[in-house]
Amino acid sequence: MSEEQKNRTTVDIYGQQYTIVGTESTSQIRYVCSKVDDKMREINSMNPSLDTSRLAVLTAVNAVNDYLKLQEKFEELEREIKRLKD
Question: Which parts of the chain are coiled coil (predicted)?
Fold first, then answer.
């Protein structure tokens, strides 16, 4: 059983440095982190009085909401493909 190579990448998210360890490529890790940073800055621009903890939670809620919408759309498309094949 082989273990996947783990990459260690230092990134900056909303002015804080984090070391991320994962099996994704360094460029993928950096890309994901830049999207998190962008979303935090976007939310902060609309709610400048939020502290960092609340901002992080709202960012996570937004990300999960987007993920669930995409998952629902994916499942809908899978059902449509299955229907068209039958």
Answer: none
Question: Residue 50 gets which letter from DSSP?
Answer: -
Domain positions in the chain: 7-85
- Whole-model pTM: value is 0.84
CB 52 within 8 A of CB 14: yes
Distance from C-alpha of 13 to C-alpha of 60, rounded to nearest angstrom: 13
The residues near 84 (Cβ < 8 Å, ≥ 6 apart) are none
pLDDT tens for the chain, 86 residues long, are 556 899 999 999 999 999 999 999 999 999 999 999 999 999 999 999 999 999 999 999 999 999 999 999 999 999 999 999 98
